[in-house]
Amino acid sequence: MILIADGGSTKTTWCLVDGDGARSFFHTEGYNPEFISTAGIVASLRQNLPATLVPAAIAEVNYYGASVVSPLQVATVAEAMRTVFSQAQVFVGHDLLAAARALLGRQPGFAAILGTGTNSCVYDGERIAHNVDSLGYFLGDEGSGAFLGKALLSDYLRGQMPPELEASFHRTYGLERDAIFDRLYNQPFPNRFIASFAKFAADHYQASYCQQLVAESFDAFFRKIISKYPAYQTHTFNCVGSVGYHFRDALAQAATAHGMAVGKIICAPIDDLVSYHLAAAR
User: pTM for the full model?
Assistant: First the structure.
């Protein structure tokens, strides 16, 4: 049996493939090595794996995760996987490689992620050939849930939301300034907290304020990141992630406005990623 995982900052989606090729899915929390240690990952997995899954029966683990870039970050996650799945051959890669493999298979092209965070690349059919750094949620991540969430929070705290939306925001979350700043600066996973507010824009997308906020976010994504790729307009724009998918019409409009034809926009990569690995195993 093999396990394939798509690990975001907020949630990890797993697929267990048995010897007959049957697929079963489950979820755990996200394991971003910027925010969690090897011991933390091990503890979470042991608590959250399905009771019917026998870790020692897993022969192969392919884990793709957010911020799994440097050798130290890879080692943090890989050691946890080898601890829990002691009999498995373990591969740990970046979630951007997962996106490229899910969107493009073994064909070269352009792939992006728009979820809690942002990432993008030119893919040569095997590996990531070029990447413009998104700089993370502190300095960049234009187009992401965190970028949208920051815009919403700052407008709310400054009293710059339309009054009816400000009232709805307060009813929905009931957060005062001190509570917001405590979550941002004193509690774990501030990126998840910020990105969670993107749902408000989706739930109130009929409001012109939210439509403009989303349009400006995607315009910044193309201006600040995508347009920095050489000859980017020669590529088809392909994207995976909940933010890109739920606002896909606005995203397609932004891509077209910046001279890119639109290819695949999907919510999650796991199904196509599993197909990629099963094809590779044949």
Answer: 0.84
